[in-house]
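Subgroup meeting minutes
Present: P.N., E.W., G.H.
Scribe: E.W.

1. P.N. recapped why we're keeping a running log of single-chain structure predictions: easier to compare across weeks, and new members can see raw inputs and outputs side by side.
2. G.H. added today's entry (241 aa).
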Amino acid sequence: MPPRSRRPNPSTNQGELNEAAQLADQLQAAGYTKRDIARIINRDPSLVSQFYTKNKGAAFVPALQQVLAAIQTGGITDLPELATIAARHTHRRTTSSGARARVRSKAVLITPTGSGTGRVGAQAIASGSSRLRPLIAEAARQGLRLAFTVRLAKTGYLHPSGSRTDSPGIRRDVTQRADHTEERSYGSAQTGGHDAAGFARRVDAAGGDVTAAVHQWLVETGRIRPDAHIIHLEIRTWRPR
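Output recorded in log:
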């Protein structure tokens, strides 16, 4: 039986690439990954892949051009700064009638009392949990407090369940699961939680990667092993009294 033919790599034939894919290739040649490009345009990495596979990305061409110019002529390399440049040149696409196209997205809701919740699983975590960033940013703008729950393998934690040096000794904040993972909560209205503005700065310092910011805090405070992987993340907010 003859071997199945493989789909050719889109990057091997520049003549067939659309302009967004060509610009993405130039950014990758400059040392940026598809994940970096996705952060710069504030979209999921799967969209960048669709520049090649589904001929998407026309709406991001002006932004990518400006970002590439900023790198090549301005020497700007910082992802948050490049994201700011891209945001100025990103415009929602229009329909055939000229109206602005609707974008499917989950609304980030923070109630008048400051209560808000956002959850992500393994797929979103792999791309930096970017959908949680607007929730954290809005919580910071409103001066709210926040807490978060993480789930990872039991062996990834440095302290036993219920340890007073961990989360913070209240067993109801620990959920053990049959697959040898545990959920632990950090912060609550009773303990005061975390300053959302401070946490937003952590996220910005991590290039917008919420997962990395949470992981760094857990490592810095001696709660998890550096090689531990977060597989579930939840952010909760409230208004301090």
